[in-house]
Amino acid sequence: MLEVVSEARSHGGRQLVLRHGSRATGTPMTFSLFLPPQAEQGRVPLVTYLSGLTCTHANVTDKGEYRAACAAHGLAFLAPDTSPRGEGVHDEEGWDIGLGAGFYVDATQAPWSANYRMWTYVTEELPALIAADFPILDMGRQAITGHSMGGHGALTVALRHPGRFRAVSAFAPIVAPSEVPWGEKAFSRYLGDDRASWARHDAVALLKSGARTADILIDIGTGDPFFAEQLTPERIERAAAAAGQPLSLRRQEGYDHSYFFISTFMAEHLAWMTERLR
Amino acid sequence: MLEVVSEARSHGGRQLVLRHGSRATGTPMTFSLFLPPQAEQGRVPLVTYLSGLTCTHANVTDKGEYRAACAAHGLAFLAPDTSPRGEGVHDEEGWDIGLGAGFYVDATQAPWSANYRMWTYVTEELPALIAADFPILDMGRQAITGHSMGGHGALTVALRHPGRFRAVSAFAPIVAPSEVPWGEKAFSRYLGDDRASWARHDAVALLKSGARTADILIDIGTGDPFFAEQLTPERIERAAAAAGQPLSLRRQEGYDHSYFFISTFMAEHLAWMTERLR
């Protein structure tokens, strides 16, 4: 049952914020959905955007500058939250674990496993929910993108669902979480010591083990403070080249990790997706 | 002396947030300034945006979606705060008075008069400061705009500085503050009982008393909850028609008072200004 938190007309379409009780996480979950003006005439493709550490649906909804391009191209734009939230949801100190930091996995380790089931949420429950409630969404024409932790989410979700997405992009993604501090911290807590379970949530490891997806476009700023230690774009360049996975990875001179960076290239990503969603 | 609070590359230009000690308000003041890529080659026109009630520089900087258009047209974009802030600055309960609600006047009534001198700040001190610190700004080519209380500010600043601005726009402005609850509350506290002093800060009253400015473009949403009681667009339509002041006022179907509305029409306003700044 979807509750409308807010609705506003924007760029000729409707910017919705919606809430529902999630079976996957056992909590209320809030997300935003932009419906372009074309959705009043017929079915429209869906772009899912997975957000980064500390974010909710609101960051990209406020700062992402996606609505003008979505209205121009006729794209719906879905932005889920990054973790379960609410009373009783386990958390720990630090903005890189717990609330706002679900890392798009189903936690197997207590106490995280009670609620931190973002993989099931974003890959199964939420798509089924909006497909049922918004029949104007053409779930046969989907693209996915994300930022940082959400770029990791977009890449791994796409690599493990071949055929679901016609285009995959990311802004400054964590491409090899098993090998960098953010991912090691999160995966050891959520997934435990079994590194085989980590590999199923690691885009570089998935490429090495034979997974493939549609064309990938990645932008990363050369002024990103997390470039070398956490994002390591050279790892996915090497893995994609070895695997024959189409990848365009662009180093954008002087850009940082913020929405000032994301919003700069958002319209290009959406135009690039549109070519592949036709 | 300008302190750089933050700087980020965005849309090919530089989004700055700056702070300085203000002589006008007697407090530190923070503002944002976007410099488009063209500012690396030569002088660029300046658009000043005055924000609405409760806002700081940050709202439009985050949500205004102005950078893509400013980069396309080569416009700098300045966003001041809406009031003095800090310890010792008087405030009262309510988001429509005091902090975040300076109404772009120089208060004459104690205790407000100590710091609430936003008229002098936005018309004199801040323009002089940035002109000196950023010689790439072409202060001979300026436009001004604003939202709600800031639309009131933009209209009154422009009407009282004929020749300074080549284009004037506003999003859902308060056009006749002397005659609506927000303005009556603010003006009675800041300016006292002398209604002649109110008229100098009332766009409709200024038009009636002979003030004129460059072409005015106003957008207002028909779904704006403040449309009839606070914004009263028909008052400026009548006054501009009687005065022969060029005004294009558009009622935008279904839009509300939020940045979802402002961001929708921001690019059009900036393109419209650009034609007049050539």
UniProtKB/TrEMBL annotation, chains A, B:
Instruction: Respond yes or no to whether keyword Nuclease is given for this record.
Output: no
Instruction: Please give one Pfam family short name.
Output: Esterase
Q: Which UniProt keywords apply?
A: Hydrolase, Serine esterase
Q: Name one GO molecular function term.
A: hydrolase activity
Its UniProt entry gives the catalysed reaction(s) as: S-formylglutathione + H2O = formate + glutathione + H(+)
Question: Would you identify the family this protein belongs to, as annotated?
Answer: Belongs to the esterase D family.
Function comment: Serine hydrolase involved in the detoxification of formaldehyde.
- Name of the protein in question: S-formylglutathione hydrolase
**Organism of derivation:** Sphingomonas rosea
The primary gene name is: fghA
